[in-house]
Amino acid sequence: MTLEAPSLSLKAAAAAVIVAACAPYLGVLDAPFVFDDAKLVKDNELLRLEGPEAWSRLRGMFDITSREWDEKAIRENYRPLRFLSYFADYRLSKALLDEFPDGDPPPFFFHLQNILWHALNALLVLAIGRRLLGPGPGSLLLALLFALHPLQTEAVTYISSRRDVLSTFFFLAVAAIHLRAPPERAVPLWTIAAAPLLFYAGFLAKEMVITLPAILLGIDILRGARWRPRRLALHGSLWAVAAWCIWVTIGNRGLIAEPVGGAVESTYLTASRYAMRYLGLLLFPVSQSLDYSFDAIPASRGVWDPPSTLLSMLGVAAMAGVAVWGWLDGRRSSRLLSLGVVWFLVALAPVLQIVPIPERFAERFAYLPSIGIALVAALALEGLIRRERRIGWTLSALVLASLLAAAWARNEEWSSPLSIWASAASAQPRSARAHLGYANALREAGRLREAVDEYSRALAIWEENPAPLPIHRGLALQARMFRGSAHAVLGREDPLAYERGVEDLQRVLASRDTDGTPIGSSPKYSAVRFDLGVCLRNGGRRAEAEREFLRVAETGGPPGIAAQAQYQIARIRLQEEDIDGAVHRFRLALRELSEGDPSRWSILVELADALVDLKDDPESAWEVLEDVERSDAPAEMKAIALVRKARILDRKGEIHACIDRLEEALHLDPDSSAALVTLAGIETNLGRWERAEERYQRVLRRDPTHEEAREGLQNLRIRRQLVESGQEASQGDVQVIRGLWSNAEKHLARSELPAAREVYTEVARKALDIGELEMMARAYGRIAEVEERLGRSAEAERALLSALRALPQDAQTLLDLARLRRRRGDDAASVRDSYLRYFSALEEAARADPLARFELAELLSEKNPQAAVDQLLALRRLGEAPALGVEPFAIEKLLGFLYLRLERFEESLDAFDRYLAESDGKDADEERERITSLVNTRIIPRLIEP
């Protein structure tokens, strides 16, 4: 039974379309800036201009014939209408928020404007549909299909795609007013006046609107329009604007790229595959991606290479045949089908690389052409509704619901740079730039090992191309540079990563920029050389690192980098114990910095520390700290300078002046933990216990984990308790404690851990009561052992810290604490300091635990390789390592790495030779192969150098 499709009221249809256009995008209003959004919006200084300069720049960028902008990073008069819309978003954000929390404009209004343009476009599609299909369900379905399709997400959610939604609005506006005039009547004069202006406005947003005259011509031909003078005038004016726009576009060399595959023939063969790929994404929107660049869709090299080329050519030919058939058939539905196909193919033509452009393929390019396919789908669904109403509406609802769900899911992937690039790399595994974007997002998230893998995948794809385009060379250099920087950080855990980082950064510096400039001699790339220096320094190659930092300091580059290079040289000089050289370089770094540079104050304080602690020159340090106080440094930094001055006074024994400086520091920064803890320690020694306790409590209220404050407070309370009790330990009390200890040891031997813990706790309490602090410390050591066996490392640490509050220099407790932190995987610097406290607490006659020497050597290997060598040599002399569970080959392996960092290559080779001889059958084959490779590539070449 055939039913007539009902007419729908315009208001109801418009409301439904607006809801459909906005619904999938409500969750992305706070989505962050991604990819090109950073340079176009977040970091665009044009948006931040004020007053006459802003208006002058805004007026000037509408001169699209200007060539002065060809060399600018952001070309202001390229798509100027888009920049004007960004300016409006920024101003609105500024007016409503006054100040931006992190200094960058929030993305809310930028996303909101994109969504509003999309909703307006959907309404215009509805208006066009009602002119072409009538007020029935077909026009509504056309608008809803366009509004909900997930392929539109890139054009709408991606802020940089403002050009697509904005230019489409003007395109559709011209089409809508053109269709208001019936084909048999004359075109109104106002349409002839308004259409070229709207068309040109669309061109100022994006050049893709250039197909408008051709599509309007096709519409008039397909609907049999009468060619009266006004209609001819309308079309003539549009073609004249198009000719002007084409001339401007072709005149801009920056918009024209190399042919696809390097040849015109390859370009035309690949165009059909692009067209069918867009059609496939519209019909089956799966595996969407932010990026389809090299080598996601490789160029066609022949009709059969790849085989999909011929199939795509046949597909495009079939679509053209359908368009011709529909026009010849003459029926209204056939001609509308023809119009849909023509709209899709013609609107898509500018991005099929017939005139090559840098961006080969992108989902946003399908935003305007998708209306043609939506028209074909709406015709099919409307026909089904007319024949089988229930089935037709059910199918339509299912299609629309599926599109809504897919669009919502796709927008979830736009919620962060990490998720959108992860989806791109997964959907298009041959897209090198997708892997690069994913790697950058992983690097920002601190997932460096995964980032290195993604950089490597991107580079592997680019390296398959023997003659890459300049843009691909530039991206490959970026990937290698970032991978090198990531290796520099990963080297803290894997020493060989430093070598891989050095290799990457050296290859970058040995390359040429995309314009042919040698990168190694370009000040623009001083940051790469700086990163190389950091990587070399962290890898123990300090002499090479210093040479790189010197080249950075000499060649200059970005602001402040020369000063940072001098600062790094100063740090190296400190490691080499060249204190005078370090002080000199600190001063050179300060000379390079501007007065207002925030890093200046921290360097001044570090210089003062070097002068006091290493050069024993408190007078010069005092002058440096005076400079900080007299400057416009932040109050917190001035407070730090005052604390340093207080410590200088404390060394001189001027305790009252020291206290005065600390009080001044607290006046500037009432929450200065350093000042509070230092002052509390002094007051504890002076017997001012109430005031000292109040200061410790202030620190702990702000930071309950502050270890120095917690230890100081507990030590204070123990001292007060012992002094106030004033009692001697009786023989009976000692016997009771020994009995309790014996019971606790039995519980521990039987693994009755909770019972053992209770008894040891009683021992510690009673020992404290009678002042037997050493016994108390041993009890807390046992409690820590029990807590760790129970899997409660935090409680174990608290027990050891309780012992140290009573006996701060108890060597065994300090060693137990160091080993606990090492087993738990605490920060290496913290663990290293714990071991050093143990060694410093040993009396001269006491013998250090041999295993502790090896453990400390491992921790010192990165920051102080010479000290690590000293520990290992002492351990080797003792000859007790095997009995303590340390294989001799492990000592030799660590010695080999340490000597290599110290560039003592002969000793490194000897150590590795001993390792290889002693580790046969005892260490992993892969590790032995790694060491052998290191010897052959790093050590032997240095030994045979002339």
Describe this structure in words.
By secondary structure, this protein is mainly α. The chain is 70% helix and 0% strand. The chain is built from 43 helices and no strands. The chain is elongated, with a radius of gyration of 37 Å. 44% of the residues are buried. The model is unreliable at 1-5 (pLDDT under 50).
What structural keywords apply?
946 residues; mainly alpha; 43 helices; 0% strand; elongated; disordered N terminus
Question: What about the largest sheet?
Answer: none
What is the count of helical runs? 43
* Structural class determined from secondary elements: mainly alpha
Distance between the termini: 97 Å
Judging from the principal axes of the Cα atoms, what is the shape? elongated
Number of strands: 0
Supply Rg: 37 Å
Summarize the structure.
It contains 43 helices and no strands. Helix 17 runs antiparallel to helix 18 (432-444), helix 27 (618-630) packs antiparallel against helix 28 and helix 37 (811-824) packs antiparallel against helix 38.
Give a topology summary.
Elements: H1 10-22, H2 37-42, H3 51-60, H4 80-97, H5 108-133, H6 137-148, H7 153-157, H8 162-179, H9 189-205, H10 212-222, H11 229-251, H12 264-283, H13 308-329, H14 332-348, H15 370-387, H16 389-413, H17 417-427, H18 432-444, H19 448-462, H20 470-490, H21 495-509, H22 526-538, H23 542-555, H24 561-575, H25 579-592, H26 599-614, H27 618-630, H28 635-652, H29 655-668, H30 673-685, H31 689-702, H32 707-725, H33 731-749, H34 753-769, H35 773-789, H36 793-806, H37 811-824, H38 828-841, H39 850-860, H40 865-878, H41 888-901, H42 905-918, H43 925-943
Helix pairs in contact: 1-5, 1-6, 4-5, 5-6, 5-8, 6-15, 6-16, 8-9, 9-11, 10-11, 10-14, 12-13, 13-14, 14-15, 15-16, 17-18, 18-19, 18-20, 19-20, 20-21, 20-22, 21-22, 22-23, 22-24, 23-24, 24-25, 25-26, 26-27, 26-28, 27-28, 28-29, 29-30, 30-31, 30-32, 31-32, 32-36, 33-34, 34-35, 35-36, 36-37, ...
